[in-house]
Amino acid sequence: MDAEEILRFADNLVFAKTGKRLNDHQRAVVRGTWQRKTYPQIAKESYSSSRHIRNVASKLWQLLSQVLEENVNKSNFCSAMERYEISQVSNSGHFNLVQKGNINFCTETSHPPKTPQNSPSTQGSNEDDTQQKPRLDLRDAPDTASFYDRTSELATLEQWIIQERCRTIAILGISGIGKTHLALQLLLQIQNQFEYVIWRSLGTSPTLQTTLKSLIKFLSNLPETELPASTDELLSLLMENLRSHRCLIILDDVQTILSSEQIAGNYRPEYKNYSTLFKLIGETYHNSCLILNSWEPPREIVASSRENSRCHSLQLGGLGAAASEILREKGLLDEDKWESLIDTYRGNPLWIKIVAAAIQELFSSRVAEFLKYDTLFLGEELKAILQQQFDRLSKLEKQVICCIATEIDAVSISQILEKVQISPLELFDALQSLGRRGLIEKLEAGDRALFSLSPAVRQYAKIDREQSNSIDRSDVH
Ligand SMILES: Nc1ncnc2c1ncn2[C@@H]1O[C@H](COP(=O)(O)OP(=O)(O)OP(=O)(O)O)[C@@H](O)[C@H]1O
Ligand SMILES: [Mg+2]
User: Fold this and answer.
1) Ligand 1 nearest-atom number relative to CA 255
2) Which of 391, 383, 328 is nearest to 351 (CA)?
3) What is the rounded CA–CA span in Å between residue 165 and residue 401?
4) Better-scored residue on pLDDT, 122 or 347
5) Over 70: is that where the pLDDT of 97 sits?
6) What domains appear along the chain, each with residue ranges and CATH number?
7) Would the CB of 145 count as within 6 Å of ligand 1?
8) Which residue CA neighbors atom 4 of ligand 1 most closely?
9) What confidence category does residue 45 fall into, taking pLDDT thresholds of 50, 70 and 90?
10) pTM of the model
């Protein structure tokens, strides 16, 4: 476990016992103790007095002693937590709100534990947290595996949702980058700020009516037979619920209602009415929040993120150095080569998991041996994932991405225009759309912007072009 994991783990333990999150000083004590720091060092770093920090720590050790049912103090805290984590992994049903980096997904409605009457007092910034007992419906949410880092993304999202009271947040990014798991982790952190939390996947492309009914049934407890028949009435009933309760709605896999072979963000014809839902939630007054996870932003979200301070988009990048935890978890060797491997696959956790599995299988976990071949491995799994992304592209986007793929270095707009027969306006549209899909990388070079592709996308773009060429040839014959 690293410091952030231990922090989440301790936070969950305390939350399960008291219904309250760790406050800033308690977090400093946990983090500092894990990093083997002294109380005066922790006090200095958290702008507090040693006496206060000792006091906070002493109460925290008492609390953890109760939870872990053994005497916890500064010197045995690390080993106690590790022992307890191991026992929880092997006995995951025992304490369902406290599985590492996890939530209780099994029940349709689940409540955090009640705050005990005599719970220890908390100090610091979390003292004002609204201690809610949210009703949860997470039946559509996947179970989590290990979760690393994303500290700054989580802080940004929490800032938008809790401090700025944003109404719509879009978490955007290429498949496998970690949108779903980031949203799950966020949920764990902020669920007690809401009265209702509901997670729905649009993976099966439900109609707007179906989605509205399922949201309203949960939020208002009305049976299906009592729900209005028209979409307009359902929309106003939903908005009524979002005004009268603080609700968090997460819609995952939103790209499934958006169309393929067009510039990013257009709806499939039968799903156009979702735009009314997104507009209403983004633009009208209420106290709730909608989080959308998608490969690309629906049109309204682009406009709202630009014009409305209560709507934000987070374009999710790779995990960076934290992805090495995935390699460690997989037991890969040659740690000095991990950085290069992570950079090649742009820190995309799913891509890295796929490549790590191949290195285990083919090279007995030796990363250096794998990298010797100086060729980019995609494998069938990664190719299938990238194919799904490419299948969504418009003709224009494919032309542009293929052009960038043939260049070794990053290229400017004028260089692309010299190579493809399209107008500047068409190129601007295509580049903007590819950017929104997270498929191109933009670099600043002096006074101009240059565009490039990640190695995996570049490789797949070449495969895709060869496939299209061979289809064209077979059409001719
Ligand atoms: N922060 C993280 N730490 C460790 N593993 C992660 C992290 N984020 C994601 N993963 C892993 O990467 C994989 C892909 O994550 P996830 O399903 O969240 O991606 P996604 O962006 O939602 O993909 P899609 O768009 O295809 O739904 C999962 O196996 C997940 O466990
Ligand atoms: Mg997902």
Assistant:
1) 25
2) 383
3) 38
4) 347
5) no
6) 1-92 (no CATH), 101-110+130-317 (3.40.50.300), 320-377 (no CATH), 387-476 (1.10.10.10)
7) yes
8) 147
9) confident
10) 0.74
